[in-house]
Amino acid sequence: MLVEVSNDFGYVIAVMIAFYLQQNFAFVIQVLRQRMATGIKAPSFYPRDSEIKELKLSKEQVQNYMYAQRIHQNNMEFMSFFLPVFLVAGVSNPIHTATAGAFIFVCRMIYGFVPPKSSIRALSGFFHLGEWYVLYLAGSFAYNAIYAKAV
Q1: Rounded Cα–Cα distance for residues 93 and 114 (Å)
Q2: Scanning 11, 91, 111, 135, which has its CA 20 to 30 A from the CA of 57?
Q3: What is the pLDDT of residues 36-60, one digit of tens each?
Q4: What CA–CA distance (Å, rounded) separates 117 from 45?
């Protein structure tokens, strides 16, 4: 099976770059700001009780740090398995894949920047709709590749 990549795949690459920037700048900056504000040093992901006590951190400081760190870590976990599927789906249907990716990007930004107790933050969960659509596109590509070979 020969796969040709259309020029529209550039949209998929553009969204992938946006995901990269989101993860490695937007979400990392939040963690770095919280590390500077609290004194929690890398490589600690989550401070131990002894570290919290030693740094004399308030409950609010710990919550703010944990929130920023969890956003970053959660997005890393998601992207590690999503991006390969996203790229594969984009080969067969780049416009739909890029559109779904842009939707996911916006939802993940809501997750990352809207305070946790805000009712608007609940909208961030809708990123799964885009995720499932990309999975469907990749599955359709696989199905078509298998049965095109058999024909």
Answers
A1: 31
A2: 111
A3: 999 999 888 899 999 999 999 999 9
A4: 23
